[in-house]
Amino acid sequence: MENSQKGFIPVMLTPFLSNGNIDYPALTQLTEIYLQAGSSGLFANCLSSEMFELTDKERIQAIKHVIKVVDGAVPVVATGTFGGAISKQADFVKEVSDQGVEAVIAITSLLADENESDDVFNDRVFDLLKQTHEIPIGFYECPVPYKRVLKPQQLADFVSTGRVIYHKDTSLDLAQIKQKLKLTEGYAFGLYDAYIVHAVESLKAGSSGLSCIQGNYFPELIVWLCDHYNDETLREEVQSVQQFLIDNMDVMHNVYPIVSKYFLQKRGLNISTFTRRAVGNFTPNVIKEVEKLFEDYSVLRSDLNIQVFI
């Protein structure tokens, strides 16, 4: 997903009905909101989508639905590895690829156990690449079931095959990101940073863009940051956006994704706060914090003259 312009790749939510089934009309509206905000791609069937709480059938149905709504407007990537033998993972990668995604994402922590070496992990990656023929692959350093961060040279070795075109980085380490970018320079490849705290510095260092949960609150703000991070005439505004995102990190991560679904309700989206994942209690105090976030964002959005569609 190489692009000279910086882009935002939302990590998509899965809306559910109150009975726990996927709410496809809400998924349609949510997808359209990401697109209207100016997202340059979408990451479907990810951790924010509650992918571990979906069945294989639901994963495929949700991916297929998103691709249908997008209708070629932007590329879509989606997770295709959920553990087990590499042959089993390869089969599901093929099934996800058949839906029309630009790249199938491999979860780094599901290709090797936490106590297994980098050599074991590397062997399995190359085995997966071999068994999936020419399908473009991406990596996501998902924190569940544990976080396996790729070393810069590892990533470079995978990218040099020409098969790995996307990486969602969760290292939280700007120096490591810079090294990854240096070693993968010149390839048709994009590194998207998940860590909003150093978003501006990461973009300036050469990241292709951002892929963070904050886009499930205000995607247009993350798009604005990707568009203006290096604009000297807006230096103060960029700093204020970066600080706003840093200041509200804890609020946005607490009992997520319930909080983001509630925030989207405040924005006018017809979405329930139902989640299949056990994430904690949505207490009155948490509600108050999210409502304050909504108020503060509304002021910031107005100050920056950012257009919103809901």
TrEMBL record:
Record family assignment: Belongs to the DapA family.
CDD domains given in the database record: DHDPS-like (cd00408)
Protein name from the UniProt record: Dihydrodipicolinate synthase family protein
Domain of life: Bacteria
Keyword terms of this UniProt record: Lyase
InterPro entries with a match to the protein in the record: Aldolase_TIM (IPR013785), DapA-like (IPR002220)
